[in-house]
Design brief:
Elements: H1 2-11, E1 24-33, E2 36-50, E3 57-64, E4 67-74, E5 80-87
Antiparallel strand pairs: 1-2, 1-5, 2-3, 3-4
Length: about 110
């Protein structure tokens, strides 16, 4: 078990920002196209946070061109360049799956001050 723990500790990112469900975040991801590599940002609201340790993932949802788009990001993946919190959300649930059914202003999360 110590070997597994040592391997996990080697790949876990120590400098993660404070982020919770309901927060609006900007996730910068490395994208490889052919032989070139660039960084692409994905802005959205965290609607779920799952697992723990090295397997931890966040589900980020955004609306673009009136179509909802969700992506699941492994937090400790080497393809994730950075995660920055844009605004804090005030929510009372651990999973915000109900936002999928909301439209317009109802789909927004109130800001925590």
């Amino acid at each position: 078990m110590d070997l597994i723990k040592a391997l996990n500790d080697q790949y876990v990112k120590p400098e993660l920002p404070e982020m919770n469900v309901g927060d609006t975040v900007r996730v910068s991801v490395k994208v490889k196209e052919g032989n070139r590599e660039r960084v692409q940002a994905f802005d959205g609201t965290i609607i779920a946070r799952k697992h723990g340790g090295i397997n931890e993932t966040i589900t980020v949802r955004r609306i673009s061109y009136n179509v909802g788009c969700e992506k699941v990001f492994p937090i400790h993946s080497p393809t994730i360049v950075s995660i920055e919190t844009i605004r804090r959300g005030k929510v009372r649930r651990a999973k915000l799956y109900y936002i999928r059914d909301k439209i317009g202003k109802n789909a927004k999360v109130k800001e925590r001050i």
